[in-house]
Design a protein that fits this description.
single chain, about 170 residues, mainly alpha
Length: about 170
Amino acid sequence: MGAKKAERDAEFNAFVTGAWPRLLRTAFLLTGDRYLAEDVVQTALERTYAAWGRVTRADEPYAYVRRIVVNEHARRFRRRVPEQLVTAVPERPGPDGLERLDDRAALLEALGTLPPGQRQAVVLRYWEDLSESQAAAAMGCSVGTVKSQASKGVAKLRGLSSLITRTSTGGAA
């Protein structure tokens, strides 16, 4: 029995090592806060470990765990005050340089203005690059709901003057 548990733990650790950065990025985009994103992923991974047998039998274990992350975010969002959605931006720029950090900050702020369903749909469809059916599976809803929520979210983002000003002036407000 001990050898079986050690094998299971090693398999889980290998999965976590490979999936952590992507899960954390998704959680950060959903929460807008680095520390809350870490909490969401940690809680999701606790649930994943408890259900590791089911996760390993799934066709796509990463998609299964991403769904747990989305559900955990939704569960936490119901308990949070909406004004606290976006509280931080990444402390360091991505590989595309400093000039992109302001654009990312504006996008994160804009994402924070979206209702939870629209935010989830936009993040999963356009940042995670999931198909409509994959996003629907991750959100636990129909493909039509994903289409509707993503469309409404993108339309709202397009209407925000902070994003329009940034893109029309080449990144400088």
